[in-house]
Specification:
Helix content: 25-40%
Largest sheet: 5 strands, mixed
Distance between the termini: 34 Å
Number of helices: 5
Radius of gyration: 15 Å
Strand order of the largest sheet: 2-1-3-6-7
Order of helices and strands: HHEEHEEEEHEH
Number of strands: 7
Length: about 140
Amino acid sequence: MSSESRLYTFSPETKEKLRKFRLGTSRAKDPQAVIYQIDKTTLEIAQADDEVYSNMQALADELPGHSPRYVLLSYPLTLASGRLSVPYVLIYYLPVTCNAELRMLYAGAKELMRNTAEVGKVVEMQDAEDLETIEEKLGGEQ
C-alpha cells in the first residue's frame, strides 16, 4: 500500500461517484466535468459540489483563485482523422497564488486521485481561463 493511500481517503460514496461518472460519460455528446477537493482536516478527497459542468466557462468561473482543485473532465472531440474520441482526463488545477501548504497537500494526492479515478491523462493548469483552450490540449493525443 502506498503512503498516499494511507494518508488520503475516499469514502465509499465518493468511489462510487467516481466510477459512475467515468462510466456514464464515456458516450457523452457534451463535455462533462466535476470538481474535487481535499478536506484539510480529515484529508478526505470528495466532490466539491453536486454540480456536473458542461460549459467550460461556467467551470472556470467556479474554480477558486487561490486554492488547488482536481477536475475530472470527459471531453468529446473529433480527431483529425474524423474519428470521435472522448478523452477522460484529470485536470490538476494549481493556481500560482495558492500557498505552499495547499500545493503540497494536492501534489501529494495527485497520483492517488489519478489512479482512483482511472483517468487516461493528467493536464496541469495554473489559470482557470486555460479551460477555454482545453480542446487544443486534448486534440494532441491522436
